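Dear colleague,

Thank you for sharing your sequence with our group. We've completed the structure prediction you requested, and as agreed, I am returning the results in plain text so they can be pasted directly into your records. Please verify that the sequence below matches your submission; if there's any discrepancy, let me know and we will rerun it promptly.
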Amino acid sequence: MVTKNSYTLLGIGLIVAGICLVPLAHVLLESAPLAAAGVSVVMLGAVSLTLGRTRPRVSPEVSTLLLETGLENISTIVEELGLRAKAIYLPGSVTHGRPQALIPLHSNSSLPAFDRPLPARLIVKYGPRPEDIGLLVTTPGTTSLQMLEAKPGPSAEELQDALTSILEGTLDVADGVRVAVTGNSIAVEVLKPRLDYRDTRYYECLGSPLASIAAGLAAEALGRPVRVEGEERGKGKSVIRLGILA
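Please find the predicted structure tokens below.
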């Protein structure tokens, strides 16, 4: 059974009413203004049908539910394992084609040179030492790259354009984005963010969803590991500080 949304039902009703009104007004009533009104009703119905087709297949409420469920599951794992190390966002070149976040199990683990892709598993060994073990997880930064037509370039302008397209355009969770790159640091200023920040272990390790998206895109654009160094939330804006790792 196909479920039609309200725009589609309204469009069908207006088109049927308009088609019935035009011949009635033109032939029987001989009223040109009423016939023109019928044509206008048909046009409004066509517009309503178009709006019905542009409505997303998955409602924002369902998307929020799925996001919250995923974050809660990862947060539970992080809490149970007592992880405190900050996640390292890796480019798709070392994670089988899509950027993912590596959470080291030990805070004092060093970052090796990734000369080959990591195994496509949850628990991975990423270095030669026994303590070089971590969790390789999917984050909002992983899926956000699929919203772009092409991989962003490494410049500040290209990163800003990509983040603006996602945060301000596709997701509509901010009113603007500014990006500045200085050496091995990236500052991302998100204007009027509409996602709440939560003081949890998950946010401590991986950053907020906004920071995760920024870090994932930056890692993929630069082809280098990136870490969320900090987030500062002020009046009407959020400043995300990213560190580019060697």
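Summary note from our side: The chain has a mean pLDDT of 80.

Kind regards,
the structure core
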